[in-house]
Each structure stands twice: as C-alpha cells, then as structure tokens.
Design brief:
By secondary structure, the chain is of the alpha+beta class. It folds into two domains: 218 residues, 3-Layer(aba) Sandwich (D-Maltodextrin-Binding Protein, domain 2), CATH 3.40.190; 209 residues, Dipeptide-binding Protein, Domain 3 (Dipeptide-binding Protein, domain 3), CATH 3.10.105.10. The chain is 29% helix and 24% strand. The chain is built from 15 helices and 19 strands. The chain is globular.
C-alpha cells in the first residue's frame, strides 16, 4: 500500500512539474542575424565568425554586467584577489549542468579560458586574457587565475561577451553544437537558414519563458525591417531612427531607445599614404561635424564621441569636446604636404544600415577641407573578410567592451584586430601602467591619457556611440531595456 501511495505521489509530482514547465515555456520567439561571416559563421564564441545571437542564449560567462552595468555573478558566485591583485580566486556555482548532461566544474573553466589563449586558435578575444599566465584548479568548484601584473579591474575583462564556458575537450565540435549551460539548447544549426533553439528546462536560473527561439539569417538591413513588419521576426535591434515613424502609433509594435557603448565609425589604414601621417588623420577628424552626424543619422539619439571607444557610461571614459574645425584641418593637410587636399575612397556596405548615410554625411563635411571622398559600395556578405582591414578607408562597428578590453583589442600594437594598424609605444605604455596601478585615480588617469593619444593620432574615427532603436512585436514580454548582452533571456515570453 505504501509503495502504491509513493508511486501515485511521484506520478502526481511528475505531472505537476510537466504542467509547470508547459506553462513556463511556451511560444516561439523569432529574431534575425546578418550572416556577417558567411560560411565561417559558427557557434564558437571565441572565433571571429561567432553567431553571437545564439551564443549569448546558449552559453554562460563566469561573470556578467547587471542591469546597472556592475560586475555581478553568473557561473561564478564569489571572487577575491590577493594583496597586489596578481591572483584572483573564483568560486563556482554548484549543481549546474551542460546541455549534454555533464556537470559544470573548474576543469571546464580552465579549458574554456586557456583555449582563448591558444595561439593556434588565434581568438579575437585573446587580448581580454593577455595578463593571465596560468589557471589553477584549486577544487572541483574553485579556480585561481594568476596574472602577469597587478590588475584591480580583472573581473571586468571576464564580462567580455565572448568568454563563454563550454565542456572540457569540446573545442573541435563546439562550433556546430553550441553546447553550454545557458537557457536555450541548439536543436538545429543552420547559419544560412534558420537556427532553432529549444528551452533548457534545467537552466540554473529557472526554466525559460519561451519554448523555442528561431534565429534567421537575413543579411540585408532593409530586409530585416520588412521581416519585422510582415511578422517573419519578432524583434529588430538595428532599426534606423529615420524609420521610427513606421512603427510609432502602431499597436502591433513597441519601440525602445537604449543607450549603448557600441559605436559606428570609419577606419583609415595608418600604414598607407596619405593616412600614414598622423596630421592627415587628425585633419580628417577635424573636418567632421559629429553632432550633425548624430542629428542626421541617429535623429539626435546618440552620444558624441571624440574618437574614444570607451563607453559613455564607463568609469574611465574621457570627456572631451571635438567641434568641427575646417581651418585647422586645412592647415594640418598643408603641413603634411597636401595643400590642395587629398582624395579617398570610403568603402561601405548595407550590412550595417547606417553606414551609407554616415559615409554620405562625412563626404559632404570633409569636402569643405579639400578632402574629396568617393563612396564605394561593397557586398554585404563578404564585407568582414574582403573589405574591413583590407581597404585604405572602410566603415566599422564594434560592440561595447570594458575600457581596458577595448583599448587593448582595437589599438594595442600587438592586437590581432587592430583595424587601422595603429602603433604607438606611448599608448601601449599607458595601458600597461593602468593595468598595474592599484590606485583608482592613477589608473583612471592612465586610461584617459591613452584616450587623449587616440584623439590626436589614431586611425579609427568614432563620431558617436549609438543609442539603439529596438522594435519588438507587442506580443513579446519581459524583454529588458538594456544592451543585448545583458538581457535576461530566460524571462522573455511571447503571447
């Protein structure tokens, strides 16, 4: 009799759990990606071709930024440093499982992060871990990271959206499987078609509100807007502000403006004439009216930047003013040996919808300084492989990173993705001293000195940091009004 009662109880409990999960996880959420890396697109977060729309839903980090931008726990629950911040110990969350059923532990952390540092892989995320010399497994759920120098802000670097935890030894297959500990699991991966994600019922933060997520390849920006209007997708985080009127007043859609640390800009190759002369690069920068760019391209919804990649809300952001100065731009060109100005070709694609407009406005602005700019349209599908870092002048875009991470990754002389091939020993020294400095004010000064150097001589022009116009179908609920990497995806629902 007791056994029968136990059997009935277990059956009822199973039914309750199943019913609860059925209620919690339902509906399909459809989003898009731009197929930015073509045939190289994959689910390996540390590669150039990562499909981040999938990665951020399937794989977790050790730490993340909370909704206020502060470092908070994810797979790590606690961390501490030794007296000189050369060793950092992280305590890991227990009871977490990967999508394949294996347990998450310290060995997985060591494997995931040391893999980023592997020179044979050549990961773009390598700079985020450049100070890490060793990772020691202290216990099953404790790791110690040893650094080459003092680094008081080291946990900030671990918020890099690419530093995801994967099962130990899965490097050869992760690009296709996407196995992680996140709220969704890969059911079918098709980079050029539709990738299907299923809810992870055992997610450590709670069962997702969605049953499925469909990630659809739509390379063209205008096509993504049409896909939203016709119901093919439920969200577009890259709608141009000039298109806002299409959705406002329509009860089928919700529009949200989200300030970000992301930027759109223009890259000049510092190894090729005339851009190998810092005076020429400075002249181009001075010829640009950044506020006009913000007004025309972003409808006033962006924050002017004086060529610093550091996010406006970052504690190390250097606040500068950089108004257009045509007379000084002409003077610098003359001093560089170009009294009659220069000619340049700006390579653009529609991969980023605002790029053509940015280029057109820049073309008009720099003409006043004697700079004749031609706009060259290039294929969107091959842009990152055949145009970016290949042409003398091209458009660029980057997602938000911590100050230290972005300054190293985009500008350090040894950086793999130093897109302008910029090299400055003074700049590199400022970054090194910032990392080693335990005093916050002194560390801040070093980072800001590095940003001053960029304004004077870098090859990447950053006119503004974008505010994103996010448009969602009104049936989407609980979508955090934050940058995409901070969204609590397991809470999102669709009616």
């Amino acid at each position: 009799m007791n056994n029968v009662f136990k059997l009935i109880s277990v059956s009822l409990l199973s039914l309750m759990i199943s019913f609860s999960f059925a209620n919690a996880s339902s509906g399909t959420f459809k989003i898009s990606h731009d197929l930015g890396f073509g045939k190289d697109t994959n689910l390996d977060a540390i590669t150039k071709g990562r499909l981040f729309q999938v990665v951020i839903m399937t794989q977790n980090r050790l730490v993340r930024k909370d909704l206020k931008g502060k470092v908070s726990e994810e797979l790590a629950t606690k961390w501490s440093a030794n007296a000189d911040a050369t060793e950092w110990t992280f305590n890991l969350r227990k009871g977490v499982k990967f999508h394949d059923g294996s347990d998450f532990d310290a060995e997985d952390v060591k494997y995931s992060l040391m893999r980023v540092k592997d020179p044979e892989i050549g990961s773009p995320a390598k700079k985020s871990l450049s100070v890490v010399t060793d990772i020691e497994v202290v216990a099953s759920h404790t790791v110690k990271m040893k650094l080459s120098t003092s680094f008081a802000d080291f946990p900030l670097n671990l918020t890099d959206y690419r530093l995801r935890m994967i099962p130990s030894g899965s490097g050869d297959t992760i690009g296709q499987t996407g196995i992680g500990t996140g709220p969704f699991m890969v059911d079918k991966f098709d980079a050029e078609g539709t990738t299907i994600l299923k809810a992870n019922p055992n997610y450590w933060e709670g069962a997702p509100g969605l049953a499925e997520v469909h990630v659809i390849a739509i390379p063209d920006g205008e096509a993504r807007v049409q896909a939203l209007l016709t119901g093919q997708i439920d969200m577009n985080r890259y709608v141009q502000f000039s298109q806002k009127k299409i959705f406002e007043g329509n009860s089928k859609f919700k529009t949200t403006v989200i300030p970000t640390g992301n930027w759109r800009g223009m890259v000049m190759n510092t190894e090729r004439a005339p851009f190998n002369d810092p005076k020429v690069r400075k002249a181009v920068r001075l010829a640009v009216d950044r506020q006009e760019l913000v007004d025309v391209v972003m409808g006033g919804e962006a924050i002017v930047s004086c060529d610093t990649p550091v996010a406006p809300a970052d504690q190390y952001r250097l606040k500068m003013k950089c108004p257009q100065n045509i007379s000084k731009a002409k003077k610098l060109l003359a001093e560089a040996g170009y009294p009659n100005g220069i000619e340049m070709a700006i390579h653009v694609s529609t991969k980023e919808p605002t790029w053509p407009t940015i280029a057109e406005v820049i073309q008009q602005q720099v003409a006043k300084a004697g700079i004749k700019a031609e706009i060259v349209m290039t294929p969107s599908k091959s842009y990152w492989n055949e145009t970016w870092m290949k042409k003398d002048v091209a458009m660029t875009r980057w997602n938000e990173r911590s100050a230290d991470s972005v300054l190293h990754e985009v500008y350090h002389s040894s950086a793999k993705w130093n897109e302008s091939y910029y090299k400055s020993s003074d700049f590199d020294k400022n970054l090194a001293s910032a990392r080693a400095e335990l005093n916050f004010n002194k560390r801040k000064k070093a980072y800001q000195n590095a940003q001053k150097t960029l304004w004077e001589e870098s090859g990447t022009m950053i006119p503004y940091h974008v505010s994103k116009l996010v448009v969602t179908n009104s049936r989407v609920k609980n979508l955090d009004e934050v940058e995409v990497f901070s969204v609590q995806w397991h809470k999102v629902k669709v009616d």
